[in-house]
Amino acid sequence: MHADYLIRKDRDRSFDQYGRLGPFIFNYEATELFTQIDHADKSIILYGKVIDSRNAALTPREIAADLLAAENMTELLAYSRYLAGRYVILFRVKEELWVLPDATSSVPVYYTVTGHETVVASSQKRIADVLGFELSASAVKIKASAEEQQSLPYDSAMYDEMKAVIPNHYLNVNEQRAVRHFPSYKMQEKTVEEVALETIHLTQNVVDNYMAERELIIPLTAGKDSRLVLSFFRKYQDRIKLYTFNHHPESPEPDDIRIPKQLTEKLGLTYRVFPREQLEESDYKHYQTMFSGTQNKRILENALTLKKSEYRDQSFVTGDIIPLVKSNFGRKLPEKLATPSYLVTKTHNYSKENKARITEWLNEVKGSAHENQVSLYDLFFWEMRLGRWLPNNMANYDTMSDPVLIFNNRHLIESWSAIPRAKRVDTAIHEMIIAKQWPELLDISLTSGGGLANALTQQSYVYYLATFLKYGVHKFKK
């Protein structure tokens, strides 16, 4: 999905289309992703793929009309909490403008800080080109201390004059300021069964909406996330196609290929294995410039592989977001251990500046998270892993493929987080949902084993210590 846009007070001639929002102009290209409704002194723009997970039959224009009933941002947040897909919402009241990303900021929102012309865009490179900004020496240093797939910490951008809007924030465009809106209330605790049924109902609506307009392909591995995704497509099994990337064709067949082969053969599903394509060095350098140093070679090569495959014209469904259900970062660890030193190990970034930014984030959210009984581990995963890593991956994928997020739904993410972490860790939620929808998917084991090391790391405190050890080893190698 190519959802490029730029907001400023002037037309940008590099875009063919535009919409007016008071003193601001929304410049864009993809007319099929654009919906605008104006009434009196208010406007709504939806840009991207927007689905109401409660009623998949609603059109973007009908959704925009519902949102336009909001009188302020508090009401807009309430109206939008069940929306799914990949999108940004622009809300104008008189001369004031706000930008609300989707639940994971999967369509990026970068903005200039005060002291510079107000510009907002889906690409930090585009803003830099418009205003003549240079890459930040500090940002380059932080990025060089990280694994390539990891984005910058918190709301940092590759330019000192910009920031990114992360999940649980909206942008006050006039004030050039991101405003946190969550955690701001106590979530009602829910049972695992209740949330599982809600996940099935709302996500099936999203899947039905996508399948009504396009064909989808689904990556399949030996893990549970991809099988959970597949379980939502049982009634479409004659239409869906599955695949696995073979990252090492010269090596013995791994579980991630052997097990999907067994499963798809048993169920009579269409399945392919694609040897992973290699990106030419000249193309890699092009993307390095395009993404201001936040390119991800692995993702770009995945996208290239799809582009060159027989499935090149079809969108693919990712399993991203759903790992939050199991509280992968926190397990059963007490909240007091959610320290900067521990959280930094989850960033795969080894710079002092990275730790300083994570400490800043923790100091900002700790009070409201504890007050509203929101786990810091979950919030960190949502905002730092999903909110920075996921949008960057989506942007890299969008260059040559079309990723679909079926779980990108604020209501669901909050519902999962409302289950105490210990219950989520102890309950096989993935298997519960699969069993309710397509039990035959469980006839073949999810994985071929695990061993002693896997069993030990299932113990929270062993996992905690192992996390520091792993981080230290990688830091030494870096």
TrEMBL record:
Q: Which domain of life is it from?
A: Bacteria
Q: Which InterPro entries match?
A: Ntn_hydrolases_N, Rossmann-like_a/b/a_fold
Q: By what name is this protein known? A: Asparagine synthetase domain-containing protein
Can you name the source organism? Alkalibacterium subtropicum
